[in-house]
Amino acid sequence: MTSNINNDPTARMKSYIERIAAGPKMSKNLTEQEAEDALSLILNQSVSETRAAVFLIAARMKLETLEENIGYWRALHATCENVSVPLPRLLQIADPFDGVTRWPYFGFYAIPLIAALGLPVYGHSSAPAAPKFGVTFEELLIGHYQIPASPVEAARDRRLAALEQFQFSYLSLRHTHPLLDRMASLRSEIVKRTTLSTLEKLLIPLKAEENFLASTYFHKGYEVPMTAIAALAGFDTTVIGNGMEGTSLYGVHKPARLFRAVGQNPAEEILFDAGKTFAPETAKKIASACAEIKNLPATAPAIVQFGEEALESGSGPAAPLIACQAAALSVLFNQFDDYQKAYDACMDRLKDGGVFESLQGYLQFLKNE
Amino acid sequence: MTSNINNDPTARMKSYIERIAAGPKMSKNLTEQEAEDALSLILNQSVSETRAAVFLIAARMKLETLEENIGYWRALHATCENVSVPLPRLLQIADPFDGVTRWPYFGFYAIPLIAALGLPVYGHSSAPAAPKFGVTFEELLIGHYQIPASPVEAARDRRLAALEQFQFSYLSLRHTHPLLDRMASLRSEIVKRTTLSTLEKLLIPLKAEENFLASTYFHKGYEVPMTAIAALAGFDTTVIGNGMEGTSLYGVHKPARLFRAVGQNPAEEILFDAGKTFAPETAKKIASACAEIKNLPATAPAIVQFGEEALESGSGPAAPLIACQAAALSVLFNQFDDYQKAYDACMDRLKDGGVFESLQGYLQFLKNE
């Protein structure tokens, strides 16, 4: 116990803000333990909304140390769902929780395809959140497919049961982290992204025997704390990259710098460029699909229309992008060892309509109870 | 009109926060006009408390440009009382509005003494405010002397009438700037000082023919925007210094660096050291008074006890400090041309008890209506 860790939450938060909000030259760092305490106070609503917002924006403006990021993550981890699932391997796809607004993104439809390739997978997201309020996995499920959202516990249990049955699912912060989910309106008041936007993509609400994470970084440099924390979280293999509009659709709009970390080892940097990784004919299809979708609106109806078209018959502009994303992740997480072979397998699965049926079955399953 | 100045206050504030809160390397500056708009939105409660707090802490952590400070000051100035008073000259003493907590400070009692030397003067302060919540002029008046605080308009009118009658008075933000006064609890939630702490000391609620300001800076560097803004405000002569516990009792606990600006001219730096400025015997008295009061509590009862003792008979540890402060300000604002002569005049006034009677008369006057 140090003199700063006293029993008065208000005094503790005051002391943390005094230190981190002193400006570009005079701000002091918190210890890992202090950072964990600070975010715990915020999550548990032991301090006012205003003071929580002041802390969060100051923590970001100061720039977090690795110790602080680990402390903040520990506070989130301690209050996150922690469910063991009887699967040998499980991939979490964690795209930015504020969704996409510039280009339609079909990651929602890549998820059942990845499962069809033999790798169990779930998407972790939330209702559209600040600052972008774009389309998320959850927005497609609730807003478009009208999956029942409440009662929350029953909905969560159904999503988990569906994962075992279909080998893929989607989870929301509502299910995995109610305390963080409750902070959505406060985070909207803060305007800017805070450390929460980085760390919510590193939660591990489900635990299989082997755990994989595919996620994203906003700015170069964040891959360092992100891969360190993902290892701490228990992910056996983590890939962090800067894909299209910040998603895990890597390397289609420009070459992506991926950071792939296995266990506690330092991350290996991989330059992933769809234009060079796949055979020329495939690369051309991906490039022209990419050019085509840039003219489509990033709305749920457009995403659903082209996503379903791809899953039904392997046709339309979404198909090469969905196959590219699924193929890349399958290789990065050792399900395939060759990108083009993985891509071909993806196109076969899309063309036979089996993935579409699987998604329909999943949606029916969620609606039936 | 630029594209950022649209009619939606929420969108405007969002855009301002996006720019200033991007962190140590990527934050952008606001124009003077944008800064004025931002603080106007906050003062008028056109944005949420949380968003106001986020803006204010981000503005400080980023460090304000001169343009931003001027813009913020313009927003405050536009919503400040603006009363002409029929006096040839008028000095405002603006010590930090969060008061003193370390050492008893007797500036409250220096004010009637300065008036007795022939320079009309008022103290501008507020109820004890964040972050220190120390003793202020207003705390002594309301908390200790039980001067009626409401109805606010009647109280303000009485304070103004008393200025003409007694040649000194005290005003609160409650009277001079209700919109800023209303932000006290929000400012307390922010924990750290914001630009408001600097700029409230540069308001000019009363205007005489010639206007003087004695105020203070927290950190070296602030004297530049402060003297620039004071000139803009219409102060003919401004002195900014770092006195005891950040007050305008300059040069007693250590040599003070004063910045004295006349009109629009650049400030002249003056090293003011009571130990060298006054005759040795006087310097010794000031030094031993300073040593003595450091052992006294910085509470209203202690301040009143020793302050009144000084005014009644020129005795006790507060007397040399009150005389030193009044003498320094009298010379800095050209009422006297010699520090020692001014000090001797001060001690004469204290010893004859006239200043005490004047303060009693002032307090009676405020109570009688």
TrEMBL record, chains A, B:
Keywords: Glycosyltransferase, Transferase. Pfam families: Glycos_trans_3N. Gene3D superfamilies: Nucleoside phosphorylase/phosphoribosyltransferase catalytic domain, Transferase, Pyrimidine Nucleoside Phosphorylase, Chain C. Residues 14-79 form the Glycosyl transferase family 3 N-terminal domain. GO terms for molecular function: anthranilate phosphoribosyltransferase activity. One of its GO terms (biological process) is L-tryptophan biosynthetic process. This is Glycosyl transferase family 3 N-terminal domain-containing protein. It comes from Candidatus Nitrohelix vancouverensis.
